[in-house]
Design goal:
Blueprint lengths: L1 H38 L3 H14 L23 H13 L9 E5 L4 E6 H4 L12 H12 L5 E6 L13 H19 L7 E5 L12 H7 L1 E6 L5 H8 L4 E5 L2 E5 L2
Parallel strand pairs: 3-4
Antiparallel strand pairs: 1-2, 2-5, 3-5, 6-7
Helix pairs in contact: 5-6
Amino acid sequence: MAKKKKDVDDQRGLSVGLLMTVSLFLILLTFFILLNSIAVIDELRVQLAMGSLLGAFGSFKGGLSPLSTGTALLPVSAPMVEGTLEVQELLSLMDRTMVGEIKAEPLTDGEMITINEKILFDKNTSKLRSSSYPLLDKLSDFIGKGDYTVDIVGHTDNRPAEEKGYKSNWELSTLMAIELLKYFAEKGKVLPERLTAYGRGSYNPIASNSTKQSRAQNRRVDIALNFKMPPHVKRIYRKKPRSTFTYKRFDFRIFE
């Protein structure tokens, strides 16, 4: 009789131990699930919190409330990454003979496309080669889809301008830039208001000018695509001027 009672007590003790083990396991499992649910990043909550924080520090007028879910809370960034990727895609379509003569590099405000003189012009002239038209047509189409400003800058080597048939390297470099501007505006149908052209002469070399090869590198045109220009400036270039007026022989366009 005593032995039977002892067996019952042993089974009861074993059941309690098993129950405690299972309970502990369930508690640990619940705790693990809870930790994982906390670790999941809710993008909407992050945006709401960031928007409220930025508003509190004056980045937005009147501050922002995390309860305002109908509008974007974070400032819209300019499409720098998109622009850069699109430029690289554009260059990948170029003729293989142009490899090494055209390059792109990022700028603080956008992207710079550099084209060697021999792709665009006859040596030491500002006359466009007919073989450059397909390239310029692709660039025109690309630029025409945007709403940013474009700076076109001509560069020469340091050889005397008289040897090239010009009064100065300033003149030659400026005419090179103007030829591209005219092509983009007249044949490419890019808004002239978006385009600026000027020359730097031989004062911004990228090579030493000490050899024939290095001088050839310096004869080039830079095209700066200002993707990250302020939004209010972009709005101006999207519009046509409402009217113009002349003051001291300067024409001024008025935009609404």
